[in-house]
Amino acid sequence: MSMQQFEYDIFLSYRHKSMDSLITQKTFHFVEGYRLPAALRRRGYKDIHRAFRDTEELPVSRILTDTIDNALRSTHSLIVVCSTDTPSSEWVDREVSTFIELGRAEHIFPLLISGDPEVSFPPSLKQVPDIMDRVMDIRTPGNPVRKMIAKEDPELLKIIADVTGCPLRELQREHSLRKTRRFAARAAAAAAAFLLVGAVSLGLMHRAQNYRDQARAAERSSMQVLQELTYSLPDKLTGIPGAYSKISGILEENARQINEILLLSTDKTTAQYDVAANFEKLATAMGVLGSYSEAADYQQQAIDLYIPLCQASGDYAPLASAKNNYGNVLNAAGRYEEAAQAFQEAIALQREIPGDRVTLAAMLSNAGANAINLGLEEEAIACFRECDELLAGADDSDYDTLSTRAGCAYNHGALLYRRGEYAEAEALLSQAVDAYDALCQRVDSLQNRNSLSRALSGHALCLSDQGRYDAAIESYRQAISISQALAQDDENTDAMATLAALYNNCGVCLNTQGNFADADRYFTSAAELRGRIYDTTGTASDAAVYASALLNTGENAFKAGQYDRSREQFRQGLEIFSQAAGRLGDAYASEYYAWASYNALIHDQDYEAAVTYGIRAVELQPDNVLANINLGYACLYAGYYEDCDLLLTWAAGLGGGVADAIRLDLEVQSRAGLTSPHTEALLALLP
């Protein structure tokens, strides 16, 4: 069977333990997003198409579920993530044995992350001939996940070569050349800045090293200079192109120097506290860079140091704070259930510490924000209400108090917005904007600026859903002005994505007002940024988001009467979307078919095709508003009036300006020559 006949190129089999799951997640994103070097693609080798992993722990059974069994049968190659926990998983063993029974034993590749083959291979895997020739070994002493992931890159080329059919040596050579070219390009862009930073850093390191032979009086000044360089780097260098990939190495080396100096102290207990605090600072710096895996590792090291120290002293405040910070890192990394456990432990410890109401309030606000991500809305509201009670009457001239109040107001307001409680949400989000603005005036840090931009964006969303578009646009423009400076570096894809979303949402407001010329500028800027992100990552999800940005631009051009330009934007967007949608979930596929329906309607005026695409979109995701609206339009012009009324009145009843958007769409469709005798009756039904 050829590679093209398989639904999946790679199946990942693993034990649902914390380390195994994290490694599997990183491996999944690497293999599915891997793009062959251009020289190999020109020779006809095709990129990885799609990978499969089950994301939930499945019950032990003698028979694999249909989903797993079907995926195995339609997969070219199998990765088995092997740790000391793997042999205890009956599921992993059955997945391997099923793959062997299918006659694909030569396409099984063990990814060894701990232990050795004898103790980490499931029984079936040990029976595979020549399996040791295909082992991908990323074991590292102490099992630090960050270092194991760093070793994956060259090892995973073995299975990529197997799937693509490209000879391994040629793939390794071209892959190495590509990395060298990318590094050279980035190094050239950042060379001037880093010559200065490197020289200063090296000089300070030598000064710190000389401390070993200096008196204690020199310690304080040397440490102050070195710490200032280390922990101010993320804020000061984020605007330098190419900086992100290099800052972490400087931070880690400086932190190592700081720890060595701290441990020279004759007061070992104080030294251990200082080392733990230093790990926390390094974790914070890594978080600013978006290196959440490294941040979590360093924060855990701090916790491990604090536990015996706090047990000995009876003062658990440092441990409570460290666990709260660990929860924040895990939340940022999307590891919400682990974060919930960390916040729960932090809050329990903090409740035993009398007097510090602000710190407990901050922890509750963080826990509430994480609960929203888990869908636990009532639990989140309980956290926010207790936070408000703790802060009642507190002095906002205190920086920590104001910061906590800002965070709680934003998180609570964002939740109420999601629930459609716009008036209460707007008041809280406005309070958050004012508080973050005051914080920025006191400390103009990257974190405060990001928080202000986020609060302005949330406030704008709430305003636009109430039809207050002018006020919403003003908030968006303020957020954009803050975010633009952070999105200059192509490596900082998070900042680029944030700015692209702001451009898009501001464009939507202008589009809804009928200001298509200004909307076009924002939509075009969003599409350009999304294109840069896709060029950097090459992932299917970023391809889909880029396609959506092009389609938004095309839809706006249609409303402006620029029909040829609109047709071209739709052509490009749907072409990119069609290649990505099949590799993603139903939500993306539904959006693709919804756009295909609208394209068939407005550009081809093929009403039956529009209905067919629209039905497919709604079948895939029944609550997709865009899909329902576009199917409603198709039904209107195809003559299915009862279905049209049902779909469009349901959508209009959702509020948030949907009814106004439908009226505007019908108006521009009429200008483009789409007519129906039922239009007036439909308009009369809209709220």
Topology, please?
Elements: E1 8-13, H1 18-33, H2 38-42, E2 51-53, H3 66-73, E3 75-82, H4 90-101, E4 108-112, H5 117-120, H6 123-126, E5 136-137, H7 145-164, H8 168-210, H9 217-237, H10 244-262, H11 268-288, H12 292-313, H13 317-332, H14 336-351, H15 357-373, H16 377-391, H17 399-418, H18 422-442, H19 446-465, H20 469-483, H21 493-513, H22 516-537, H23 540-559, H24 563-581, H25 586-602, H26 607-620, H27 625-638, H28 641-652, H29 658-671, H30 679-685
Concise structural overview:
The chain has 687 residues and is mainly alpha-helical.
Q: What labels would you give this structure?
A:
687 residues, mainly alpha, 30 helices, 5 strands, 3% strand
Question: Care to describe what's here?
Answer:
Helix 13 runs antiparallel to helix 14 (336-351) and helix 14 (336-351) runs antiparallel to helix 15 (357-373). The chain is mainly alpha-helical and 687 residues long. The chain contains 30 helices and 5 strands. Helices cover 72% and strands 3% of the residues. It is globular. A 5-stranded parallel β-sheet has the order 2-1-3-4-5, with helices on both faces. The termini are far apart. Helix 4 (90-101) links the parallel strand 3 (75-82) and strand 4.
Uncertain runs with pLDDT below 50, 5 residues or more? 56-63, 183-247
Gap between N and C termini: 56 Å
| Number of contiguous helices | 30
Q: Report on the biggest sheet.
A: 5 strands, parallel
Mean pLDDT: 81
Biggest sheet strand line-up: 2-1-3-4-5
Structural class: mainly alpha
Percentage beta strand:
under 5%
Computed Rg: 28 Å
Percent helix, as a range, is over 70%
What characteristic shape results from the CA principal axes?
Answer: globular
Count of beta strands: 5
